[in-house]
Amino acid sequence: MEANMRWMALTAVAPVAWGTNYFVTHAFLPADRPLYGAALRALPAGLILLAVRRRRPRGAWWWRSAVLGVLNMGVFFVLVYAASQLLPTSIASTVMALSPLTMMLIAWPLVAERPRPRHLLCAVIAIAGVCLMVFTGTDGVSLPGILASAAALLVSSFGHLLTKRWGAGTDVLASTAWQLTAGGLLLLPVAAAVEGPPPALPAPTLLAFGYVATVATALAFAAWFTGLRHLPAGTVGLIGLLNPVTGVLLGTCLAGDALTARQLCGVALVLTGVLLSRPGARRGTASGTASGTASGTASGTAGGAGSGVASGAPRGGAAGPSEG
After folding, report:
1. Residue 36 CA to its chain's centroid (Å)
2. Where residue 289 falls among pLDDT bands split at 50, 70, 90?
3. pLDDT tens per residue, range 155-179
């Protein structure tokens, strides 16, 4: 039980860091350069982790790194940026809050983790909490925005679980570094072709990129993928809902937003869902063993919120659970 709680606490670093990323991105980074924003976030983070774990990919991990880098860092970052520009924050956050259910359903065929009734119930409780915190109505709904948000949800869930499936026996920091580096290198020429020369980087912007790359990306993704290595996908997906909780609390502390009774109830529901989803000692051991066996058999590390985002974060305090 204590070991599971430690892994949950480590995994929670990711959505909390992603939640702070929305504030930093909105306040300091250029909102009109999503491709450069994603590239300048992913590539430095990958190089930092490569300096910590000086290991090169071997064998199949050369192409796996490229695939996962595109899914988890490239396509996902850009889709989240598009959704943030086309939808109000409340609606985008509500769509992305479905990530725990999506991860549970995809985990069943991909990593042989069957959804447990308790996880499904916890997901419903936590998603209801997110809706209470951030949903303010349907004004400004855009079909392209909904499609972009839903696509980001599917891409991140699939990419994170594919990382879990392929990651057995691989060093977490090394595989995370390969993904980030590959994603950043693939994004740079696309950014140059679409957005032209790189944006100017005055000192505040450069410092903000430094924070985003080190804390909200390198540290966050390493923690997220480590959690997916040791915890059921359903539990990790629910932990990701701490992202909008962080966004709401930051809006209160830094932007002076009022914390309403409705939002407090939402925070309480999310925390309840996350805590109730923790695996028991016996169940956690069995689940971890089964997951490791299935992963090794398949091809022997992941998760989201939900995300990180590219340089154009959703306007407002709260954010979706996958960040990236």
Report:
1. 19
2. very low
3. 999 999 999 999 888 999 999 999 9
Among 230, 176, 216, 219, CA closest to 53: 176
| Distance separating alpha carbons of residues 36 and 21, to the nearest angstrom | 16
Residue pair 237/309 in contact (Cβ under 8 Å)? The answer is no
Residue (of 98, 142, 76, 77) closest to 244 by Cα position? 98
Residue 100: phi and psi, rounded to 5, are: -60, -45
CB 106 within 8 A of CB 161: yes
Distance CA 128, CA 251 (A): 20
Q: Which amino acid is at 272?
A: T
Q: pLDDT of 261-281, one tens digit each? A: 888 898 899 999 999 888 764
Q: What pairing do the DSSP bridges indicate for beta strands 322-323 and 306-307?
A: parallel
| Beta-ladder partners of 62 | none
